[in-house]
Amino acid sequence: MRRTRRDWISFASAGLGATAVSLTPAGAGQSTVRPRLPREVWAASVSREGIGAARSQQAVQVVLERMEQIVPLRPDIVCTPETFAFSSVKGKLEKVAETAGAGPISRPFAEFARKHKCYVICCTYTKDGGRCYNSAIVFDRSGGVLGEYRKMHPTNDEMDDGVVPGPVDPPVFKTDFGTIGIQICFDINWPDGWRKLRRAGAELVFWPSAYGGGTMLNALAVENKFPIVSSTHKGTTKVCDITGEEIASAGWVRPWLCVPLNLERAVVHAWPFCEHNAAIQAKYGDKIRIRILTENEWMIFESLSPEVSIAQVLKEFDIPTLDQYTAKSDAAQSARRP
To answer: Are 266 and 248 in contact (CB under 8 A)?
Structure first.
């Protein structure tokens, strides 16, 4: 029987009761693992596309099934959508909010993290000291709670339901591949939280959300020079690289994504430091990729070898990062400003 596009959307969206499709290749007992770079992180996220207004435990089951499909790619970290287990909490927030890692929503994701040796960001309502938050719980590779981000800027409707705004200084989380940060949905409208994450050393930021964010997400990635991985209820779940370019997306065709991101990179102002490029390539050859963004007058230095540290290369040739270069210029401007 020939499927219509509508049938396919319903099937591909892994509706309630669907069985996870195994992506494990034939002969999976044989090694198909390629070597990874020291700071190469495989970042994954899941879309809530097609789940609808399911009961909480049904939504949990479908999201876990989708995460299982990612397992053959050996993800380092997987992010779930904002409060994905709930379509509404009006009048019952106190009943559904849980202690991080100790409730029926978050516990299965701690177990997934432990079983598959990956970090997991589980988004749900949490409670602490009599207050309820819209939160993202970060589990480490052993399933332990690494930390919790509490949405800084809940909507008016959320606050009417009892959600309390989180601290104005968002935490960063140290992982074995780098430093990550999180913002949630409505936080996209306040650039200060993103800038604080950048200043705190975030190299990769996750954005669980109820909607897609559109070009605002691309702009925040290029402004802050870190990749952003979204995980949404509707619209596009995507990855925006530090250039602002969308490099992966998920939706009705496949409701999850998993991509490699090399964190051993630095953004450099093109002039006058491009004068070192020939000497750098002569010494390091294909161990370094230098990408030129001509219109931005930026260069992106990326290590393609475990033997090469970009920080050491920049130090060797006395090249500041773009942030260092603009900070020096800012200080000089302030000193000369009447």
So the answer is: no
